[in-house]
């Protein structure tokens, strides 16, 4: 989970997170085809790559697999944020720049999050 997802990977993961249930390649394909023309093999290849990257788990069902996200979208996004912060070189400066750019809604969300997990507490 070191890099953001590509466009199709992101689209497929968004679908998988929205289902809140296991889904087959065929399920995702039919969903995607409401918006674009796409081949079964393309969706299958991307879902296999997402499995290899550790974002989807899969179980065999008959001659196919059903897939399910390993983590929530929020957990995935948090991991991306942590990775970006770790690679920034100067974490304090990076956080200052991040905080300066927060919208009022984002600042409210941050304040609410800090009520749940106050600074200095560790979850692990």
UniProtKB/TrEMBL annotation:
Highest taxon listed in the record's lineage: Bacteria
Annotated keywords: DNA-binding, Transcription, Transcription regulation
Pfam families, alphabetized: Penicillinase_R
Keyword Transcription listed: yes
Family indicated by similarity: Belongs to the BlaI transcriptional regulatory family.
UniProt-recorded name of the protein: BlaI/MecI/CopY family transcriptional regulator
Lineage: Bacteria, Bacillati, Actinomycetota, Actinomycetes, Streptosporangiales
């Amino acid at each position: 989970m070191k890099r953001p997802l590509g466009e199709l990977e992101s689209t497929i993961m968004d679908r998988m997170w929205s289902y809140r249930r296991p889904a087959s390649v065929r399920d995702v394909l039919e969903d995607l085809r409401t918006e674009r023309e796409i081949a079964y093999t393309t969706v299958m290849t991307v879902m296999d790559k997402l499995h290899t990257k550790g974002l989807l788990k899969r179980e065999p069902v008959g001659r196919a697999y059903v897939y399910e996200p390993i983590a929530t979208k929020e957990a995935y996004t948090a991991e991306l944020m942590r990775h970006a912060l770790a690679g920034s070189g100067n974490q304090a400066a990076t956080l200052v720049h991040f905080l300066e750019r927060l919208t009022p809604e984002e600042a409210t969300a941050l304040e609410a999050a800090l009520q749940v997990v106050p600074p200095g507490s560790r979850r692990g």
